[in-house]
Amino acid sequence: MASIGSWWRVVQNEKDRSSGLESDFEYRERWITIRLVYVSGFLMFLSFGVVTTGLWPYLQDMDPTVGKPFLSVVFAAPPAGQLIFSPLIGWCSNRLSSIRVPFVILTALFVFGNGLYSIVELFPTPHRRYVLLLARFVFGISTSINTLSRAYISTATKLSERTGAISMSSLAQTFGLAVGPIIQAALSTIGKEGLMWYGLRINMYTMAGWICAALGVVYILFLNPSCFVHRTIAAQEAMKTTGFSKATDTYEPLKMFSIWTVMIGYSVLMFFYVSVQTQTILSKLLGTRPQGNWMALYTSIGGLTRIIGPASVVVYVRFGTYWLFGLGAMISGLLLIWMWCYKSHLRTTKKINHAEEMQRMANGVAE
């Protein structure tokens, strides 16, 4: 209980204090900033979770002529924004003395993207789909803040702290994904029509965007210089351990094969994750009935597994990389076999044999 109390009050323990790397005040500043970084991940994934569940019906309401192919484009917009701007953000983060200003700018884009998402109805109907697409693209740019978060946590934690800090960051993101669909399900009580307020429609879809935008504004207030103080400690720890006087002297050669193995594995997993996240199969299986609650349940189940996911760090710490990746591969393989065995249940259209098709064509000609 004492350790939990120290964690909550941000108090440096005796072991950390004896290292002489930082004072109690610096330790407190460093960890307050790290926890503010956690919140950024929560916000980004909260917005993703709350918007994703209502994106398709909202898009149809804004433009009834829109089709599923454009939905795929809308889903691709946030990753496109992140793809284009993350390298730039990462490059800048290595050259800036503080990440506070980029955090403020990216959070402001987060607010703008969600606000624009909520006022799509103000634009002419033919343009609404493109305004919504722009809103999601801007949101994607704002998610580049995750690049800064990972980079900062890596430099602002000691080696013994890093695994736990990264796990907590992942947990915050997962919590956002889990809470998002719950919020959307709760907002379904407002309905699609909602109400008009100073010319703005407040309904179950737009309210989701306004909530995210409001949370973004509150977060910006906490990014003031007195709360968000950029402090690094990884380089100082490495220099003290190795005896070098320059941080660059502590850099170890990059293991490119290992690095690219992790990156390729991550990209493959994300490909299948996003493919499933488009929800086309589930949407067709549900038919024409209202799908808000089902989509919320669908995303919440995914959120549950992502809550459990950060616990995998225990496997990594105790048994190593092979056990962690091997366990993931085994579970994925079993799931693939299961889905293959029951693939007939995943069909969304009735399979028609050749004879039936020819008979229908003959009947059509006869008529």
UniProtKB/TrEMBL annotation:
It is found in: Endomembrane system. It comes from the Eukaryota. InterPro entries: MFS (IPR011701), MFS_Domain-Containing_Protein (IPR051068), MFS_trans_sf (IPR036259). The chain crosses the membrane at residues 36-58, 70-89, 101-120, 132-153, 202-222, 257-276, 296-316, 322-342. GO terms for cellular component: endomembrane system; lysosomal membrane. It is a multi-pass membrane protein. One of its GO terms (molecular function) is transmembrane transporter activity. Keywords: Membrane, Transmembrane, Transmembrane helix, Transport. SUPFAM superfamilies: MFS general substrate transporter. PANTHER family: INNER MEMBRANE TRANSPORT PROTEIN YAJR, MAJOR FACILITATOR SUPERFAMILY DOMAIN-CONTAINING PROTEIN 8. This is Major facilitator superfamily (MFS) profile domain-containing protein. The lineage of its organism: Eukaryota, Metazoa, Ecdysozoa, Arthropoda, Hexapoda.
